Amino acid sequence: KPLSKPLPFCFTSAAEAGWPDMAGGPQIEQYLAPEWLRRYLKAKRTVEAKLTDSGDNNLRPIIVRPSLIYSMDRPQSYIPVGAFFVGNKIGLPFVDKPVTVQSLACAIVRSMGDEKVAGVQRYTQIEELSQ
Q: I need a surface site. Which of 6, 42, 97, 113 has the fewest CB within 10 A?
């Protein structure tokens, strides 16, 4: 029986799952990504495809794609997070800006309550939703 409105379902994927659609992304994945990362991204893409191609009108899939997720109370993450900030700032198309765990959680909660939000949400949408 169809629901009056689709139920929101949020899946936390990875920014790198979008590499096939980014300039340089396929080459990074094919030649530089370790095998474990390629398997991880394949699994993320499989779930994304199941959610978006299901044809289930009772479900509103929301796919958040953060890159690095960090928290200011974990100084050991500053170096890799800083590198991603720099890569994104200089325009590397396959490097998304890191997001805080707090902004990601806030964006997920808000996206579930906003019927207009569906599909892939990258770092720019995560930032907007968390404001």
A: 113
